[in-house]
């Protein structure tokens, strides 16, 4: 099993030879230099937080989240706790920490600009979808997910961007050298994003988070998945622009917790689909679990977290 030393090596491997990180090269990528200590300290703090609490973040949070969401949907959790947006957003944000910590050492000006463009695209495509029915099909949010920007949640990028980033990272690991081909990346990431949404949307519709005017696949119209192909292509191009692929691949290979957010996703939404008897989404979730196990991403030592929680 990966141990604490392997986890800590994730950050050490992202550092410069002199032990610093955080300034930017002319192309906007992070390099070592003076003035990087504050950033290095932040990266180290977030890494330690994730390493020391991997079991809590990747296992307990989605397990508790699934129970609370199902209790809310089934009328077992009283107001104001039922679907409380602060609880939902806090839980989601915590489960995103491994992905954030994994990417943080690689984020320079170029990545910030590309990811900022992806955030803008996220808002724009969702607004168009919510007001016109294209490209995802006609839908509306039923449960409050916090403050709204017109018909869409302000926190939308917290839900959308990790979905496509996890799909991109998983594709890099599974494809190996084949990921050097842009057409291969586009097809692989698009297929993975669609598969992720085949797990997410049926469970969200069953919970009553949002609803579509027309059904199809567990209440989700086929047009929705065509929309996700479009968004996956845009996201792939922007992630390509944000990071050097060789550095991103090395980072995801050496950072054992970088796909823990996908582990949480499988547990949370797989459990909800299982509760509602959605056979196909559960099968897709199990396929993701098998891929993560095969990549040694389900294999982490939880004993330190458990021992600390008892002390």
How would you characterize the overall build of this protein?
- The protein has 311 residues and is mainly alpha-helical.
- The chain has one domain (4-310).
- It is 66% helix and 5% strand.
- The chain is built from twelve helices and six strands.
- The chain has a two-stranded antiparallel sheet. It has a two-stranded antiparallel ribbon with strand order 3-6. Strands 4-5 form a two-stranded antiparallel ribbon.
- It is globular.
- 39% of the residues are buried.
Shape: globular
Portion of residues in beta strands equals under 5%
Q: Taking strands numbered 1, 2, ... along the chain, how are they ordered across the largest sheet?
A: 1-2
* Structural class by sheet pairing and helices: mainly alpha
Domains counted in the coordinates: how many?
Answer: 1
Name the poorly predicted regions.
1-23, 303-311
Distance between the termini: 23 Å
Concise structural overview:
The chain has 12 helices and 6 strands.
How do the strands and helices of this protein lay out in sequence?
Elements: H1 4-12, E1 23-24, E2 30-31, H2 37-52, H3 54-73, H4 85-103, H5 109-132, E3 139-141, E4 148-149, E5 152-153, H6 156-175, H7 182-207, E6 210-212, H8 222-242, H9 245-254, H10 260-275, H11 279-294, H12 303-310
Antiparallel strand pairs: 1-2, 3-6, 4-5
